[in-house]
């Protein structure tokens, strides 16, 4: 073989292998980046928040059973819960069954209990009432996917919540997953600190009735304080109207955590899940600290008055009458008229008026007049200076 050709073939092969290696490495990094996702996790019992919102990051390495038979093909809400428990609570594959209690069903894994310390039954009801079950929700939307098949996406919001199953027919009632219309509220105002919030719900049927729920607010130190709102520590409460809206009047500025509850007629069960939100109430200052104040319509600046002219009325009297007039300017509250005996200095305010003409008297002499319009402390430019001779 020609040495030149042989040399070029070797160079080509070396270049080809280098390109293949780079592409393989790039694909590997891309796959890892694409597989990583971060979700928000929260846990609500029937009458208390067990876990305020936390961020959990999942990667392909978390596609494992965690010792309780989770899917190894996709990342589900139970994977997010297991990852949190392993990172923050020290749960291992050998002990995870003490934290997440599951059983097999026709629809995949069924969640029987959540124990954040690994040594309780993990009941969905604070007092271990019967007919209360663990449910889950993603992004405040209805879903028919089971826990074993619900595939998480980046920035999903996952809530595990305990809710009463509604009893047995014909005495059964409808129960709802509920959430606030916003996850956080920022409000800047003078007293009273009044804010309207709305509850939204997902029920077992098309009806979504969240009237009569009690919204509660508790003082906290910040959005990530970790304090939860309960019936015992609430500093204010308010009932929702027929549209699920409630008006809250806060006692002072600061941070608050919000939740809500509603009991059945017998007072024994909760028929909505606990929602969660935070509110930052700020007393209006200039500027309003920490909160963007509501946008206000800009005040238009007055335009420059024009057409200034004067007419001196002939008279034998010592003082002559002067009639001053001008054209109307836009966006004005009043006009200010200034007068001087020097063209470029010593002007004094003659008068203010809403009209476009005035009458005043002056003795014999030469005078200079100019005007400008104003509105809410905004002033127009001065008109041209008008020279007036009084004979």
Question: What is the element layout, followed by pairings?
Answer:
Blueprint: H1 3-35, E1 37-44, E2 49-58, H2 77-88, H3 96-99, E3 100-105, E4 108-114, E5 132-138, E6 157-164, E7 176-180, E8 184-189, E9 193-203, E10 214-220, E11 236-239, E12 245-250, E13 254-261, E14 277-283, E15 306-313, E16 320-327, E17 334-340, E18 348-353, E19 357-362, E20 365-375, E21 378-379, E22 386-390
Parallel strand pairs: 1-6, 8-14
Antiparallel strand pairs: 1-2, 3-4, 5-6, 7-9, 9-12, 10-11, 10-13, 13-14, 15-16, 16-19, 17-18, 17-20, 20-21, 20-22
Quick overview:
The chain is mainly beta and 391 residues long. The protein is 13% helix and 39% strand.
Helix vs. strand class = mainly beta
As a percent range, the share of helical residues equals 10-25%
- For the terminal residues, how far apart are their CA atoms? 119 Å
Global shape: elongated
Rg is: 37 Å
Low-confidence stretches: 26-34
Would you tell me the overall average pLDDT? 86
Please count the helical segments.
3
DSSP E strands, number: 22
Strand order of the largest sheet: 8-14-13-10-11
How much beta, percentage-wise? 35-45%
User: Quick one: biggest sheet?
Assistant: 5 strands, mixed
Listing every helix as H and every strand as E from the N terminus to the C terminus, the arrangement reads HEEHHEEEEEEEEEEEEEEEEEEEE
């Amino acid at each position: 073989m020609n040495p030149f050709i042989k040399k070029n073939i070797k160079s080509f092969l070396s270049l080809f292998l280098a390109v293949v290696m780079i592409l393989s490495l790039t694909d590997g990094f891309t796959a890892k980046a694409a597989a990583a996702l971060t979700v928000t996790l929260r846990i609500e019992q029937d009458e208390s928040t067990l876990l305020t919102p936390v961020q959990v990051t999942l990667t392909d390495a978390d596609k494992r059973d965690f010792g309780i038979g989770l899917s190894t093909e996709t990342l589900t809400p139970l994977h997010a819960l297991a990852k949190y428990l392993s990172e923050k609570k020290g749960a291992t594959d050998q002990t995870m069954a003490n934290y997440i209690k599951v059983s097999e069903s026709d629809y995949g894994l069924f969640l029987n209990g959540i124990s954040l310390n690994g040594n309780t039954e993990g009941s969905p009801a604070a007092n271990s009432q019967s007919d209360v079950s663990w449910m889950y929700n993603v992004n405040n939307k209805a879903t028919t996917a089971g826990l074993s098949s619900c595939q998480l996406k980046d920035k999903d919001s996952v809530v595990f919540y305990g809710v009463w199953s509604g009893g047995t027919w014909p005495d059964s009632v409808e129960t709802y997953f509920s959430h606030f219309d916003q996850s956080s509220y920022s409000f800047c105002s003078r007293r009273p600190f009044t804010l309207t919030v709305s509850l939204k719900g997902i029920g077992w049927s098309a009806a979504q009735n969240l009237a009569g729920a009690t919204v509660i607010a508790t003082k906290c130190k910040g959005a990530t304080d970790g304090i939860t709102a309960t019936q015992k520590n609430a500093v204010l409460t308010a009932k929702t109207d027929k549209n699920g809206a409630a008006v809250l009047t806060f006692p002072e500025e600061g941070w608050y955590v919000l939740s809500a509850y509603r009991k059945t007629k017998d007072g024994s069960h909760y028929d909505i899940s606990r929602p969660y939100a935070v509110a930052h109430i700020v007393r209006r200052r200039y500027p309003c600290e920490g909160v963007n104040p509501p946008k206000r319509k800009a005040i238009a600046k007055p335009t420059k008055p024009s057409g200034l002219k004067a007419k001196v009325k002939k008279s034998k009297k010592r003082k002559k009458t002067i009639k001053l007039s001008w054209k109307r300017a836009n966006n004005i509250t009043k006009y200010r008229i200034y007068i001087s005996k020097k063209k470029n200095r010593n002007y004094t305010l003659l008068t203010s008026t809403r009209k476009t003409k005035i009458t005043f008297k002056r003795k014999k002499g030469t005078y200079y007049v100019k005007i400008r319009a104003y509105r809410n402390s905004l002033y127009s430019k001065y008109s041209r200076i008008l020279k007036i001779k009084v004979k």
